[in-house]
Amino acid sequence: MAIWIIGTYIHDEFETFPYLFFNAMRGSGKSRMLRLIAELSHNGELLGSMSEAALFRTAKGRTLCIDEFEKVGSQEKQGLRELLNAAYKKGSKIKRMKKMKEGYEVEEFEVYSSIVMANIWGMEEVLSDRCITIIIEKSGRPEITKLIENFSNDSQIKKIKNDINDVVCSLCSIISIRKIEKEWNSYILDKYYTTLHTYTTQTTLDIHTTLNQDKISLFNKMDDAGIDGRNLELSFPIFMIANLLNSFDPILKTLKDIMIEKKLEDITESKDVQVFDFVSRQELLKNYVSMIKLTNQFRDFLGLEG
Fold first, then answer.
1. Largest CA distance in the chain
2. Which of 126, 133, 115, 108 lies closest to 66, judged by CA?
């Protein structure tokens, strides 16, 4: 979570940035967590609700912490949900007509922003796919639960904010996300495309040969984690910040565990589709195939270990 908060200060450097979603029962401290994040993050604001218009008109450059975000999957929240489905990625824009003295003109709003959400009942499936989900359990520690919140005047919170600003200034002087993204893509193309197709462009060779050993080691660890697709999009900014703060290995393990859990949930929710897809890819065989062999092949198809 600390890495994510730091990321809100350099959010615009990334092409994508994950949402945080806290799922917890009543009295578990999710509202307190959102207030703390709003206090520490870049231009953070705690909101009890969010409308479609408020999101696209005010989100740019802020960290929105939306509490009690229930019924997000309902029909009346469809417009807001569609905006949230797009706002994790840079370049998503909304156009609205603005009435002028003489007719109308088009107003354009960019919705890309840092967003935290919390509720009790869980998140709609498509929106959940853009989130790093954290489940909060009710604490039994009185030294925490009996404290009165006063984040805005807390000396420790102020010190943390100063420390974050110092870290961000350091990151801004050394970070070049666009270059790292290009290096990563070249690394992947060089590793997989040339292996599969024995074809290498001069650009790929030039960039790959300029990678130092530390960068190659970093990319190898990321690749070996088996995170891809949108999960990689969401994880990439966190990986880059963690690496610069010398916290890469524990963050990699945490995100890998989260993504494995998410993948298992996706499989559970769409078993019929997965089985149909697996069967449709099998070759027509005349011989008997054991159930154990089919089961193992299906597990390999799903990318499950063991």
1. 78
2. 115
- Both 115 and 235 in a single domain? no
Residue 170, domain member (yes or no) = no
CA distance 54 to 134: 26
Dihedral of CA atoms 72, 74, 80, 83 in degrees, nearest 10, equals 80
Q: Which amino acid is at 116?
A: V
Give average pLDDT by consecutive 10-residue segment, the chain, 306 residues. 92 92 86 92 88 81 88 77 89 81 82 91 85 87 83 88 85 71 90 61 50 89 92 94 92 91 70 73 76 82 67
Q: How many CB atoms lie within 10 A of CB 242?
A: 22
Q: In the structure encoding, which two tokens stand for residue 182, read together?
A: 């290009």
294: enclosing H helix or E strand: helix 291-302
Count of domains observed in the chain? 3
- The structure's pTM equals 0.77
Q: Please, what is the angle between helix 213-224 and helix 177-188, to 10°?
A: 70
Select from 77, 112, 136 the last residue of a domain: 136
| Residue that terminates a domain, selected from 72, 104, 136 | 136
**CA–CA dist 136, 170 (Å, integer):** 32
Q: What is the rounded CA–CA span in Å between residue 208 and residue 204? A: 6
Spatial neighbors of 207 by CB under 8 A, at least 6 apart, are: 182, 183, 186
- The answer to whether 114 touches 10, Cβ cutoff 8 Å, is no
Are 280 and 208 in the same domain? no
Owning domain of residue 217: 177-267
What residue type is assigned to position 101 of the chain?
K
Query: Is 194 in the same domain as 255?
Result: yes
Strand partners, 107: 96
Question: Which residue is listed with tokens 């993050």?
Answer: 41
Block residue for tokens 């996300």: 177
Contacts of 254 (CB under 8 A, 6+ apart): none
Whether 144 is covered by a domain: the verdict is: no
